[in-house]
């Protein structure tokens, strides 16, 4: 009877140790995933900042006055006289 109790106690201790190792491993994996989530959120914030900067740059580059200034200065274009303008209906 004492041998059965000893074997049973040994099995319970082994299961307890196995459970403790599983808890430690689970906590470790949880921390790794949390770090990865934090890195992805930081990367997302950086992308959002870059997106905002690019949107601002696009707005600046496509302003009507900027396009007109670039056309006059770099391409030497001028507006045609009123009677040379032809309107096309869609």
UniProtKB/TrEMBL annotation:
Membrane topology: Single-pass type II membrane protein
Pfam family, one: FtsL
Subcellular location: Cell inner membrane; Cell membrane
Record flagged with keyword Cell membrane: yes
Keywords in alphabetical order: Cell cycle, Cell division, Cell inner membrane, Cell membrane, Membrane, Transmembrane, Transmembrane helix
GO biological process: FtsZ-dependent cytokinesis
Transmembrane segments: 6-25
Cell cycle recorded as keyword: yes
A single cellular component GO annotation: plasma membrane
HAMAP family per UniProt: FtsL
PANTHER family in alphabetical order: CELL DIVISION PROTEIN FTSL (PTHR37479:SF1)
Protein family according to the UniProt entry: Belongs to the FtsL family.
Protein role: Essential cell division protein. May link together the upstream cell division proteins, which are predominantly cytoplasmic, with the downstream cell division proteins, which are predominantly periplasmic.
Summary of subunit composition and partner proteins: Part of a complex composed of FtsB, FtsL and FtsQ.
Name of the protein in question: Cell division protein FtsL
Originating species: Methylomonas lenta
Gene: ftsL
């Amino acid at each position: 009877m004492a041998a059965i109790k000893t074997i049973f106690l040994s099995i319970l201790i082994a299961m307890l140790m196995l459970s403790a190792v599983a808890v430690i491993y689970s906590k470790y994996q949880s921390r790794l995933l949390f770090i990865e989530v934090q890195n992805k959120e930081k990367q997302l914030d950086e992308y959002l900042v870059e997106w905002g900067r690019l949107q601002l740059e696009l707005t600046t580059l496509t302003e009507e006055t900027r396009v007109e200034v670039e056309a006059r200065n770099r391409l030497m274009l001028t507006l045609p006289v009123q009677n040379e303008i032809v309107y096309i209906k869609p």
